[in-house]
Amino acid sequence: MTLTSPTPTTPVKLAPTPRSGGPSRPSRFRMGAGQHLKGGPFAYAALAVVGFGSLLPLYWTLVAASRTQDEVLASTPPFFPGGKLFANLQTAWEQANLGKAIVNSIIVSSSITLATLFFCTLAGYAFAKMRFRGRGWLMTAVIATLTIPPQLSVVPLFMMMSGLGWGGQLESVIFPTLVSAFGVFFMRQYLIEALPYELIEAAKIDGANNFRIVRSVVLPVARPAMMVLGMLTFVQAWNDFFWPYLALNQQNPTLQVALGQLSASYTPDQSIVMAGALISTLPLLVVFVLFGKKIVGGIMSGAVKG
Amino acid sequence: MATSTPTRDADAQAPRTSKKEPTAERRQLWRSRLWRFDDKASPYAYIAPFFLIFGAFGLYPLLYTGWIALHRVSMTGLDSMEWVGWENFDKILNDPEFWTSVSNTFLIGVISTVPQLLMALGLAHLLNYRLRASTFWRTIILTPYATSVASAALVFALVFRADGGLLNWTLGLVGFDPVNWANGHWTSKLAISIIVIWRWTGYNALIYLAAMQAVPNDLYEAASLDGASRWQQFRKVTIPSLRPTILFTIVISTIGSMQLFGEPLLLEGGALGATGGNENQYETLSIYLYNYGWNLGHLGPAAAVAWAMLALLLLIAAANWIVGRFFRTSAVRPGAPS
């Protein structure tokens, strides 16, 4: 795995590089790969096409959710939202146990996010700044777990959960994802750069024990990265489908499970299904509109360190 | 280090005699031991939660899967396991449907990963220009990532509908006959790949973009002084610099495509979803596992499928490793002809 290389790389600059230099550097205009190069009309046009493709399915979810099924399935599909949105939302709400699903999704995603933040910050700090025997290969082991798909362990997991009395309960989807290897790696990469050894030493001289150092030194420094990791984890937990679909049932679903089951019913009403899809997507879209910049930065700084 | 000094003092006077020392010194000794313990144990305490949870809910089930694969267990009686030996493996390895889903998984993996990563590379190149509202563009191309598999699969199911689907309607404008996407062997795989491509291209583009921005500018300057064209710079500077990142995304996408579940399950939904279409034309390994275990209720064969997937993953990892080695040597080779 390329990820394991321990060398800290330079932090990624998120802001576009300022125009330094001045007019006396004609060579800039010959530089390749777009570095510093101004995007021409072609670049904007191409991005607009990709952007259109990225947003179209989401827009069409809204269109279909606000129409009747007959209109959605007509041989000329509708292109603009209709007036049935609230009626469809209401039907979806009643048919698919969506109220409970929303509450469940919030419980599951927040517990996973909080636990991941706590455990991954601790572990990331230990891997970034503490010396201990086995640090190198333990970090490699953490990264290696990224390559194991959940499919390989669902059968015994299902049996374990039912043995623990968690069959169909939220615990069964919360506990397996309380930590994430990506989170440990992400926090480690951030803390290697952001947390100077001097700060830790100073706290030690002041007589702080290790846990105190975590509380008073590491956590404040780690906060920006924790924000980003929190959002990424929440998105992932909210959207998780495979294991929740196997572990939970219609009586006690998360939103994604409810959505899957809504469409698996014998004659699903497509506009109702789309209303459900809209409900399940909307919260995350709001998060993206509000924090898009932070999430983009997080993905770029977290995954690149090859 | 403040902690090491008292520790060393305490060590010097430690053995036996300490019993006679006044309490103040004994307290000192205790404290330094505690310090030392704190220093030694804390890192392990901090990383322990990860390994405990992974051990309990990841590694242990992974190994236990192999044990279950040798037994008969049914969904209705999870407590009773009956030894059957290799029967489950025999069953799935002799099932043509299993091999169909292996090849489907592989084909969908290739159709979705290759164009996805190439497009992501191009997109990253575009985003690397100095752009107005660059954050806006980056956020826009990342929005599919915010959409869940379920929502994405369901809306694409409508887009791919045979009559009146958005795609067929658009094709009709250009004069093509409607395509029955979900029914065809290739078109259904293409449809599923398109869902995957839609969701993940932006994400991979951002990863590439970050790697591109980390390439030192001097390299480009040197290349352009040497008279390299833009395309040559892209090929000789950008791509080699991105090699580790590209390998990383290949690994991640390959693992991801092994797991495809929501897209095939919901493309047509209902009973067709659980068998991957009426002729299993888009059944993936995950669907096959789900169908055996959760639809038909035989957990033994489902566990055997899981271990077959593990074997496949190891094969792919080995192939990846070999390809990676090949790339490494060929990239380092000095003075390669241009």
TrEMBL record, chain A:
The chain crosses the membrane at residues 41-60, 101-125, 137-161, 173-192, 213-238, 272-291. Residues 102-291 form the ABC transmembrane type-1 domain. The keyword Membrane applies. SUPFAM superfamilies: MetI-like (SSF161098). It is found in: Cell membrane. Its main location: membrane. PROSITE patterns: ABC_TM1. It comes from the Bacteria. Pfam families: BPD_transp_1 (PF00528). This is Carbohydrate ABC transporter permease.
Automatic annotation (TrEMBL), chain B:
It is found in: Cell membrane. The keyword Cell membrane applies. Its main location: membrane. InterPro entries: ABC_transporter_permease, MetI-like, MetI-like_sf. Residues 1-25 are annotated as: Disordered. The keyword DNA-binding does not apply. Residues 102-320 form the ABC transmembrane type-1 domain. Keywords: Cell membrane, Membrane, Transmembrane, Transmembrane helix, Transport. Belongs to the binding-protein-dependent transport system permease family. It comes from the Bacteria. This is Carbohydrate ABC transporter permease. It is a multi-pass membrane protein. The chain crosses the membrane at residues 44-70, 106-127, 139-160, 190-211, 245-262, 304-323. CDD domains: TM_PBP2 (cd06261). Pfam families: BPD_transp_1. It comes from Streptomyces sindenensis.
